[in-house]
Amino acid sequence: MRFNELGVGLKLELKLEGSDEKNGDSVFVSEFEWAENDRIIYIAAPIKGGKIYPVSVGEELAIVFIKSDNLYEFKGKVIGREVRHNISLLRVETLSEIRKIQRRDFFRFDCSIPISYRVVEKDRINILQRRFIKSYTRDISGGGVCIRLKERIETGELLECELFLNDFNKVSFLGRVVRLTEYDSKNDVYKYEIGVKFEKIEERDRERIIGYIFQEQRRLIKKG
């Protein structure tokens, strides 16, 4: 697919590549305006809270869109900011070709959905005596989840988890804690986040997670 095949007004999701991944403000909605050529395109400057968000020149972007009911992605870099006909625009240099996102790609999706977990003892004898602790995700992917925590769990721990994609769709898995982040916040009860990599999960359950991400991503982009 060529960039001049994208229609004016096509909804785009922008991910600021250089931003803090824990910052939900790093994802915005924009619109395609026109292609100068296959290397230079113009998109609408994203708006946040009723104001134009100041995307800096030099900022690199991951740009996702839907066309013909499929999900696509390409990379770009902001090389200029302009105002034409009272519309604030970003001039973007394309850094990659447009590629179709396959359902099996481990695309991370920011979402807060219920998850329950418990630490698996090394000998696994006492696991049934430990109650599940309820919490919420920060994001999910086909390769793992990020979980918000009130208590600290060290990297290397093995967790048994139940992820609730909706009221009728529960996914169970074992995962290994591969990352721990602590926040210095007095107002948020969730002071920790852990990255959990799937260690044992049924392939059909992984497909359910990927399918959920795919459907939600399409819904949000269409909603704009």
Structure description:
This protein is mostly beta strands and 224 residues long. The chain folds into 2 domains: 3-100, Electron Transport, Fmn-binding Protein, Chain A (Pnp Oxidase, Chain A), CATH 2.30.110; 108-222, Thrombin, subunit H (Beta Barrel). Helix content is 9%, strand content 50%. The protein contains 1 helix and 16 strands. It has one helix at residues 203-223, and strands at residues 11-16, 27-35, 40-44, 47-48, 51-52, 60-67, 70-84, 87-94, 99-100, 109-110, 114-119, 133-140, 144-149, 158-166, 169-182, 192-200. The strands form 3 sheets. The protein has a 6-stranded antiparallel beta barrel with strand order 1-2-3-8-7-6. It is elongated, with a radius of gyration of 20 Å. The model has no long low-confidence stretch (mean pLDDT 86).
